[in-house]
Amino acid sequence: MTTADVQPGLAPILALAPVVPVVIVENAADAVPLARALVAGGLKAIEITLRTPAAMEAIRRVAGEVEGAVAGAGTVLDAAQFEAVMKAGARFAVSPGATERLLDAASGSPMPLLPGVATASEAMALIERGYRFAKFFPAEPAGGATYLAALASPLPQLTFCPTGGITPESAPRYLKLSNVVCVGGSWMIRREHVAAGDYAAITAASAVAAKLGAA
To answer: Is 135 an active-site residue?
Structure first.
């Protein structure tokens, strides 16, 4: 098995920007303007989490209506959800962990999976299956940038997208690590801005996020 078979097309998606916005959509009608605001700020890969009843429709709308957006699905927990989000138009799937059934469902799929790990043993299990990229989750509670830096030498095969409790202040600490390609976060999406339709504020915050780690 080659690495290309396992996560096809994921590398360029994760390299689009230093931050992948993690989005919880309460109302599907908000999905398109919200995604357009993120893309306008430079954040094109958008992880829409399956945490609300509106999530699947939000993925469909963003995938079909937002030019420049790379719609992804987060909180994908099982094979059925993996297949459903792919049919909805998601171009990548993200999971907080990894089970054998979920990894089997992703094997050979044209849609890549970014599975989550929190320990060296979990990372080694992914490496055995040919994975090159993993989500480090929950990043801050699991040990933060210091912990992730310690994995770089013994486990150089994996590159991470840390997610969970990351802020604009802590993100640069992750982005400077050799084994980090991007971070996941939601700080650029304030609920009050969505409620008020203040998408300009979301675009402005996204533009700042898109420049993190650029020095």
So the answer is: yes
Q: Whole-prediction pTM value?
A: 0.96
Mean pLDDT of the region 84-110: 97
Catalytic option among 26, 44, 47, 128: 47
Distance, CA of 79 to CA of 98 (rounded, Å): 11
Q: Please provide residue 99's backbone torsions phi and psi, each rounded to the nearest 5 degrees.
A: -115, 160
Peptide linkage before 138 cis (omega within 30 of 0): yes
Name the average pLDDT for the chain.
96
The answer to whether 78 and 102 have CB atoms below 8 angstroms apart is yes
| pLDDT surpassing 90 at residue 215 | no
CATH 3.20.20.70 fits 3-209, yes or no: yes
In which element (H, E) is residue 193 found?
A: helix 191-196
Catalytic residue among 83, 135, 169, 176: 135
The yes-or-no verdict on residue 173 having pLDDT over 60 is yes
The two most distant CA atoms of the chain are separated, in Å, by 49
The yes-or-no verdict on residue 101 having pLDDT over 90 is yes
Tens of pLDDT, residue by residue over 24-43, are: 999 999 999 999 999 999 99
Can you read off the two tokens belonging to residue 112?
A: 């890549």
Q: How many other CB atoms sit within 10 Å of the CB of residue 101?
A: 13
Please confirm, yes or no, whether 47 is among the known catalytic residues.
yes
